[in-house]
Design brief:
Largest sheet: 2 strands, antiparallel
Strand order of the largest sheet: 1-2
Helix content: 55-70%
Order of helices and strands: EEHHHHHHHHHH
Number of strands: 2
Radius of gyration: 21 Å
């Protein structure tokens, strides 16, 4: 149905997606599954890329010679089994289906593939479908996709490394302000105040906690993530996001201590709970705002 001409692209496909919500949602889910597969790469490789960059910087500061080395980024080298180095073929990289077809094992060495990979793909696909159902074939849906994909990547990177990379949080903040230039999810005035307040609220809590206990309760990445959420949805939703994040963190933290016997002194990432609050703001922002602000 999509036809390419010398002078442009036929709009039949776009009209179909706009007029048939069911088809749009189905296409969105498939797209979300594919993006979820790429997010697995981002979650695994971005912290390693950051570590390599830090090591390179340290060697340069020491005056050591730094060799270029092999290219390592989100595209190259090709994905491979971490144990036997078997290169993942296209047929083995189909979201969810390849995992099921392979029985959750590497086709070469039979090492188990972490079930988290298809779960992230499913999470991305399901959330993309829900966004498309709620917002329809609109620019708001596209913006919500980007916001959600960023939160998924940040959530699992923080779980693994307790890092929230600036290469994701800062563009997410600026994109939120850009999207709200003409009143996306909120007006620009609220978005700018939300970005400033989001950062300063957690920054203040960080320093207050450090002055009282002498310990660091959270990282600067948490400040930037809440600032990004404030930029997307405005200052009005920040109290709800913080409350939901703190409540979820407390419940899960207590559960891990009681059920998984996790030590009380073992640090817990706060980014995933902020991301959960951000998702709640995305889907139920107007209802939340009306509940406690009457607006």
């Amino acid at each position: 149905m999509l036809q390419v001409y010398a002078g442009g692209i036929n709009l039949d496909l776009f009209n179909l997606l706009q007029q048939q919500p069911g088809i749009f949602i189905a296409v969105s889910v498939v797209f979300g599954l594919m993006v979820g597969s790429f997010l697995n790469v981002v979650i695994y490789r971005l912290p390693l890329m950051m570590q390599k960059e830090w090591e390179r910087g340290c060697r340069e500061l020491k005056g050591e010679e730094v060799e270029p080395g092999e290219a390592y980024n989100l595209v190259v080298p090709r994905s491979a089994c971490p144990k036997c180095k078997h290169k993942i073929t296209a047929a083995e990289n189909i979201p969810v289906l390849s995992f099921l077809f392979l029985g959750g094992k590497c086709s070469a060495c039979k090492t188990r593939i972490p079930v988290r990979y298809p779960l992230i793909e499913l999470l991305s696909g399901v959330l993309t479908g829900i966004i498309s159902w709620q917002f329809g074939f609109t620019f708001a849906a596209l913006a919500a996709w980007i916001f959600t994909f960023a939160l998924i990547a940040l959530t699992f990177i923080d779980f693994d490394t307790q890092l929230l990379p600036d290469s994701i949080t800062l563009p997410l903040l600026w994109l939120g302000l850009l999207f709200n230039l003409n009143g996306g999810f909120t007006n620009l005035h609220s978005a700018v105040i939300g970005a400033m307040a989001g950062y300063l609220i957690l920054w203040s809590i960080y320093w207050l906690f450090k002055l009282v206990t002498g310990k660091e309760g959270m990282g600067y990445g948490d400040f930037k993530l809440l600032a990004a959420i404030g930029a997307w949805f405005g200052w009005q939703l920040l109290p709800a996001v913080i409350l939901l994040s703190s409540l979820a963190g407390s419940i899960i933290g207590i559960g891990l201590i009681l059920l998984a016997r996790r030590g009380r002194n073992v640090p817990m990432p706060f980014g995933p709970y902020l991301a959960l609050g951000g998702i709640c703001a995305l889907f139920w922002g107007p209802q939340i705002s009306k509940f406690y602000l009457g607006a």
